[in-house]
Amino acid sequence: GKEVFIRDVATSHDEKEVTEGLAYLYFFPTGLTEQAVIHLSNEEKSSNYSILVNPLTAKCRVENEYVELEKVE
Predict the structure, then answer these.
(1) Per-residue DSSP letters for 11-73?
(2) Which residues are CB-neighbours of 9 under 8 A, at least 6 positions away?
(3) CB 62 within 8 A of CB 49
(4) Closest by CA position to 69, among listed 1, 6, 18
């Protein structure tokens, strides 16, 4: 049915969320990455999902709500 859009990307190196253009998530030779959240939503922004990136394992977790980067555990 409805399309899904990247709403914004929040990383630990950006001062605010990237809402247009390119967003970068850095991976390091040691296997670590930055803490990041990729926010997805429908066009009306009534349905939101957050992909949370763990900086130690680079594994992702999906939450069915908008989660701010500062609130990621």
Answers:
(1) ETTSSS-B-SS-----B-TTS-B--EEEEEE-TTS-SEEEEEEPTTT--EEEESS---GGG--
(2) 17, 18, 23, 25, 36, 37, 38, 39
(3) yes
(4) 18
C-alpha to C-alpha distance for 48 and 29, rounded to whole angstroms:
32
pLDDT per position as a tens digit, 12-67 = 999 999 999 999 999 999 989 999 999 999 988 899 999 999 999 989 999 999 99
- Which amino acid is residue 10, in one-letter code? A
Contact predicate 50/9, CB 8 Å: no
